[in-house]
Amino acid sequence: MTPDGQTDRGLKTAPSAHMSLTGITKRYGGVTALENVNFSCDLGSIHAVLGENGAGKSTLIKIMSGVVTPDEGRMMLDGREVTFSGPSAANDAGIVCIFQELSLMPDLSVADNIMIADPPRRFGLIDKRAQKRRAEELLARIGCEDVNPLNRVRDLPLSRRQMVEIAKALAKDPTVLILDEATSALTSSDVDRVFEILRKLRDDGISILSISHRMHEIEAVADMCSVFRNGHNVETFRQGTRSAEEIVQMMIGREISAHFPPKPDKDLATQGAAPPVLQVRNFAWENVLQGIDLSVRKGEIVGLGGLDGQGQKELLLGLFGVLKSTSGTIEINGKPVSIRSPIDAKRAGVDIALVPEDRKTEGLMLPMSISDNLSIASLSRMSNGIMLDQNALESSVAEAVRRMQIKIGNKSDAVSTLSGGNQQKVVIAKWLMTDPKIILLNDPTRGIDVGTKQEIYLLLRELAKEGAAIVLYSTDYEELIGCCDRVAVMYDGQIVRELAGSEITERNIISSALNIEEAAQ
Amino acid sequence: MTTTDTMPKAKSRLWTPENKPVVIASGCIVVILAIGTAYTLATQGTATLLSPGYMLQQLQVGSFLGIVAAGMMLVILLGHIDLSVPWTVAASAMMATAFGGAAALPVGLSVGLAVGLVNGLGVAYLRIPSMIFTLGVNAVMRGLMVAYTGGFAPQTAATPLMQYLAVGKILGIPVALFVWAAVSVLVVFILRKTPVGRYIFAIGNRESAAYLAGAPTRWVIVFAFGLCGMMAGLSGTLLAGYSTKAYQGMGDAYLLPAIAAVVIGGTHILGGRGRYLGTLVGVILIVLLNSVLSIMQMPEAGRQVIYGSVIILMLLFYDRGRQERQ
């Protein structure tokens, strides 16, 4: 190293600390999101950031990528102090973020999307040819030569879109690449591919910061880990020096005894005499669902398994009356019912609730208050036909907050101020306020921290004990195994196998999901 | 001591993001009054603008706009818009005077309600964007009225009841103001006290989430458009009473000011956010601005430029505030 560090700016400060944050504090109103946080990431390493929702990870990357400015503290990049006036300033400094939600425009071409921030120009007009060439280079860099840059993004499968998203980030020539749960929508083979790309980029000298809830992915790819809890950086350590249990322990800060609440004894499963609450016969919708037969008894949690996109989501929406022109019969407590809208599904005597897939667009009105979001499904119960009963409303909202242990400041705050886990609790609580007898859940724990997942598992079992019939679709096999009394595995719009009791194993679920037995017959 | 303690508190309570548009618009009203009064003092030596009689007269004129804006606000809160207001106003006025007698007022309201329901059904069930559908309905209503009247002002006159509601006075206060007040109470009641009000905000924020929560979204959309149409009908009927007859194009001057009043009052043009108090202040601002400009004998062209600039400037202020908050 030369004395003045002229030749190697990156090595001027601590050994290869590429970007470092010192004493960062950020408050939102009365909530402290980050408190006196020190954090640094090194050149050419993959650094995983872990923590429950609300631990401050999102705020951390928002500060690093210039989306929000910290209240206190300093940021150093290549040994120089930096402040960002906005995301584009951070981009210019080489910090690029890939956010959780895809940011691609579906009706523009792949090349248009990749180069959207700064398209190559000729005489002031966009040079389409240069743009295509550049897009091809970038796609090749991440091993996606097969994607045609002139295709519309809308026509690409989800996994390919994620690759395009990475190419788009690379178009900005990052030295720090931040991924915010970029793999949460991908299947495991696609995830492996993304990891390969990340390792390659790391070897090219890019610092990579990755936020993820999936422990095995972190084990697979990270070099360094930092665990956040309640706005503090609890510990930064080299990956592999702590066991998974220790990491989980750091994240939740309390002992967790069992991952899943105990299932009731077998007698319930063998209690075939008990008539089902929900009985679906020969249910079908367009080409997506075919001949679905499903019954759910009182007190039972039935899982829907299988690969993503085999009709599980549509089945739940169909039962909830969202899909038009479904065929087949639905019986509730032995009586056939017609469910043609969520209003029908909610009606007394049907009493179905649905926790939808995407809490931000389907589950919540984000800018509205916590109280408004909680009460929206049960307003008709809390009015005399014309006027709302404010007292009943307030007390049931308070009851819901208490029962679900939702961490809130004030119930008139916008629901968007809550962490992801607490937002999901609001979605579930909203439906519990309608006293549902049948609860449909579409991947309720996606993108949620370990602690809240635990609470949701406990809650589901508790609701089942109180007599609800529950249908749970999950992309997480462990969850199906741990939570469900029975699992119906779907493949290509049909239920190919029903597993019960000890049959519910990862091996059985996966082989049914791939429809292996079916092929053998 | 006490003042330093309470002042910032009072200020921060007043200066919430929710209140900001109302505070700014109110400040604007004061400025407009000050400029207008300075002008009249300088030229005529009187403070005409500040006399109660003048104020009441302005509010009376403003009540027609206020009633239209009240209905428009419900539709804008949903994230929609009603561009059929001009010919809903005219059609209601023409039908009301044509029927005459005791039927005049009910007929005027019914015509408005019917147009509003057609708008609502088109938007809620046919899923046609409200901007297109209501524009089409406006053209259709115009065509129907031109066909009906042959393109001339109808010869029929407003009934005494219509005239009383528009220009009559109770204890020196114009009756039109009481009508406006009643409409305001109704809208505030709907927005704050009823499930429908909550649904309106919910739909404006995220229709898919409201639908999946089992909210009767279509019904609420039809309801809001129906009420908006009925308000336009009421306003048209009163307006015919005010000018003793109906005429072509009588509603043309109400569409943009109504939308402007709602938006100046802080209601988000894409729906989901807003307070009725803001709309009220917005209406008063627009009416006073118009009246001060006409007192100053500003030519029509200059009036339009100032009028438009004020609206744009105020909205600029609001948006700056939104960015700061994020």
How would you describe this structure to a colleague?
The complex is a heterodimer of chains A (521) and B (326). Chain A has three domains: 9-252, P-loop containing nucleotide triphosphate hydrolases (Rossmann fold, 3-Layer(aba) Sandwich), CATH 3.40.50; 266-351 and 436-520, Rossmann fold (3-Layer(aba) Sandwich); 367-434, no CATH class. Chain A contains 19 helices and 22 strands. The longest helix of chain A has 16 residues, at 188-203. The N and C termini of chain A lie far apart (68 Å). Chain B is mostly helical and 326 residues long. Chain B is built from 14 helices and two strands, in the order αααααααββααααααα. In chain B, 48% of the residues are buried.
Task: Describe, in short, the structure shown.
By secondary structure, chain A is of the alpha/beta class.
Q: What key phrases describe this protein's structure?
A:
heterodimer, A: alpha/beta, Rossmann fold, six-stranded mixed beta sheet, 22 strands, globular, disordered N terminus, B: two-stranded antiparallel ribbon, 14 helices, 75% helix
Question: Could you outline the blueprint of secondary structure elements for this entry?
Answer:
The complex is a heterodimer of chains A (521) and B (326).
Chain A: E1 17-28, E2 31-42, E3 46-51, H1 57-64, E4 72-77, E5 80-82, H2 87-92, E6 95-98, H3 110-114, E7 121-122, E8 125-126, H4 128-141, H5 158-170, E9 176-180, H6 188-203, E10 207-211, H7 215-221, E11 224-229, E12 232-238, H8 244-252, H9 266-270, E13 276-285, E14 289-297, E15 301-305, H10 312-319, E16 327-332, E17 335-337, H11 342-346, E18 352-355, H12 359-363, H13 370-375, H14 390-404, H15 420-432, E19 438-442, H16 450-465, E20 469-473, H17 477-483, E21 486-491, E22 494-500, H18 506-513, H19 516-520
Parallel strand pairs in A: 3-10, 3-11, 6-9, 9-10, 15-20, 15-21, 18-19, 19-20
Antiparallel strand pairs in A: 1-2, 1-4, 4-5, 7-8, 11-12, 13-14, 13-16, 16-17, 21-22
Chain B: H1 2-14, H2 20-43, H3 52-77, H4 85-99, H5 104-124, H6 130-149, H7 160-167, E1 169-170, E2 173-174, H8 175-193, H9 195-205, H10 207-212, H11 217-242, H12 255-264, H13 276-295, H14 300-325
Antiparallel strand pairs in B: 1-2
Helix pairs in contact in B: 2-13, 3-8, 3-11, 3-12, 3-13, 4-5, 4-6, 4-11, 5-6, 5-11, 7-11, 8-9, 9-11, 12-13
